[in-house]
Amino acid sequence: MESAYKIFKFRSYALTKIIVFSMECVVGRLDTSEQIENQRKRLLIITFAVVGCFFLGPFGILSILKGRIYLGTVLLMFMGIVIAIAWNVKKIDQLQPISTFISSILFVLAMYLLTLGGNEGTGAYWTYPIAMLMIFLVGPKVGFYFMAAYILVSMVFLFGNFSFVFDYSAAHKIRIIAATISLLTLVIASEWIRFGSYSAISEISKEHQSRANTDSLTNVLNRHGLQGSLT
Question: What is the pTM of this model?
């Protein structure tokens, strides 16, 4: 019991240290809204890669050891792709295409776990955090289309007559769809609020910066503005 607690404590400590170190590595000077949004996506990708090492890796290996080779291979392959992207994420300037690519992979992974049931039908529960991350990575605009497609495809597979879909009960299927719609709607709403608040703050920041760099009477660059334009 004591050894298990020590292992858990070490894992938690290591996970915290890795996330903090990763954030310190990618945090730099952020001047524009695009840079800040890219920074947010970098931290999401790195955090997901680190967490994936602690969860997807062991689950993938355990699935292979239990004879579920296909499931274990899919989990380990997905983990490898995300780690490779996270390793080079600081070198990438435009992260929206990468975020869309990862969200597409998350879409496929969630569909795989939902339709095949994962390990004894528990795959449906893992789809909730995966679907949330799928939307967080791309933002509210693109995320809305991901959400609509995900819900539609889920309903088609769950309520259609497909032999490969896990045998959920009728009540369980309704609960899965209802929970998914509720959760993703809240995520989209929170993302829209964040995006709107951030846009308002950015506009105010630009206005203050403009006032600090220009003379209020002549509306031309002052000494501070000239120094900034020359550097």
Answer: 0.69
